[in-house]
Amino acid sequence: MKKKKFSLIALFLGMLLAFPVIGCGGDEGDEGASENSGNNNSGNNSDDKNLTANNWQSTIVEHFGATINLPTGWTFSSGEDKTFGYSGPEYEVYFTTDAEDFATAHREFVNAVFDATEAVTPEEGNYAAAKIYPFEKGERFETAPDFEVWYFSTATHVNSITIVSQESTKTTGISIAQLYTKSW
Questions:
Q1: Sheet holding 50-51, edge to edge
Q2: Given 28, 52, 61, 169, which is the most exposed site by the fewest CB atoms within 10 A?
Q3: Could you report the average pLDDT of every consecutive run of 10 residues in the chain (184 residues)?
Q4: Inter-residue contact 68 to 57 (CB < 8 Å)
């Protein structure tokens, strides 16, 4: 009985793995994708999930409500829609600066992002996660944390911000993601 149960589970898993392959088929000459394959990227072609200097700000505003104004000396470098199927929107956006003092420029950049997310939820502000599962809102940050990770809320969702930097290339990146449905 145990062997039969294992075989049924293996068969079921095999069928689940086959569905994505079956769904990629199309007519001969058809690349197998429609112009907009439901990639949650506001109508961008499924082959082009990149953000541009012209659309990164409006994309962040559309999905997270935060208007990020770059400090002087920072320019858009690249960006990508990292949204994965069942999850909420997630984007990575990178910027460069020509500032001689990268540490100071980076701190100004972090503060600009912090202020933008704080403005979205002024009553709740930016905060740490007390517990991830189940999610509980932690202590409110009055200033941008040194570790450059925080959470903020929209009317319906909890979102996270992670900021990373590379001093050698004078690059700073933002990862912004919708995590949970808000429970308070």
A1: 50-51, 74-81, 90-97, 171-181, 157-166, 149-153, 126-131, 136-141
A2: 28
A3: 43 40 41 35 49 97 96 97 89 97 97 97 92 90 93 94 97 96 84
A4: yes
